[in-house]
Fold Large-conductance mechanosensitive channel.
Amino acid sequence: MLKEFKEFAMRGNVVDLAVGVIIGGAFGKIVSSFIEDVITPLLLKPALEAANLSKIEELTAFGGVKYGMFMSAVINFVIVAFVLFLLIKGMNAAKKKEEPAPAAPAGPTQEQLLAEIRDLLKK
């Protein structure tokens, strides 16, 4: 059983998935910091000051419904989705450049073969 577990854990897909989850967690922290420390102060500061708030997460309505937390999560999602879109678009563009041009057809065409047969029959 231990041998089977070792084989399972060392498969390429499992290791790749683990690396992806770890990098995704770190990327999530970067995006959260970007939202809280850059986007909110630069873009949302006037609106937050008008509401007497310092963070978007503090927005509430109807006596305690924290819709600011939801708005913050939506902004985080949109930024992550946009960054992933740009990454995938860049990868696809690089992949298209790597593809070799289609090779010329190997061997003679049907018309060339028929012409050769005709010439041989004439002789």
In short: The chain has a mean pLDDT of 78. The first helix runs from residue 2 to 9.
